[in-house]
């Protein structure tokens, strides 16, 4: 899967952000009202949030590239390529009319859709195979980006992602279609691969605290 153009667009958006600071200004406005579960450096919240969004966006082409390699190793490339294509296609058009301009604000929204598509597909696979198609868990990171985008816009993006995931499930991921063999679940047991892709929040200054004694994230919607 060729992600060269997307990587170039991200680099261009980063340079544009250095010039106009549009995303930084948006994050500065959002920071004081973010849910208390989202923790960040008090003395440098804006920069931490900006770094978080950039890394979150850059993870899309990284994951797409890795999907191709893992799909080949697990003999399910047809299905991983379908998911990868859906993620890349998100960046071919603005997520909403508000995102017709170029820049990190636009890419943040588009990356959110892509990551949410993967999240929805993983949930579908867990329901059918008891394990995800893709060895990553972006749930906490997606919750943080949802907050940064804000409602009702983020809810609209969720609907776009859900529709894309449903289309993937109908065309590529249905068990009763014969497209996937039940033995695929054994081939998609990634093993050590999972350790290469920890939840994004584990490596950045911005984090979403978990409830005491609970393995699931707080509901911050």
Structure description:
The chain has one domain (4-208). It is 58% helix and 2% strand. It has helices spanning 4-20, 22-30, 45-73, 77-89, 104-129, 139-149, 153-171, 184-187, and strands at residues 38-39, 207-208. The protein has a two-stranded antiparallel ribbon with strand order 1-2. The longest helix has 29 residues, at 45-73. The two termini are 34 Å apart.
- Total separate domains: 1
Q: Tally of extended strands?
A: 2
**Low-pLDDT residue intervals, each spanning 5 or more residues:** 185-189, 211-221
Distance between the termini: 34 Å
Biggest β-sheet: strands ordered side by side in the sheet: 1-2
Question: What is the averaged pLDDT score?
Answer: 79
Total helices: the number is: 8
What helical percentage do the residues reach? 55-70%
Largest sheet: 2 strands, antiparallel
| Beta content | under 5%
Specify the overall morphology: globular
H/E element order: HHEHHHHHHE
Structural class: mainly alpha
Radius of gyration: 17 Å
Please specify the SSE layout and strand pairing.
Elements: H1 4-20, H2 22-30, E1 38-39, H3 45-73, H4 77-89, H5 104-129, H6 139-149, H7 153-171, H8 184-187, E2 207-208
Antiparallel strand pairs: 1-2
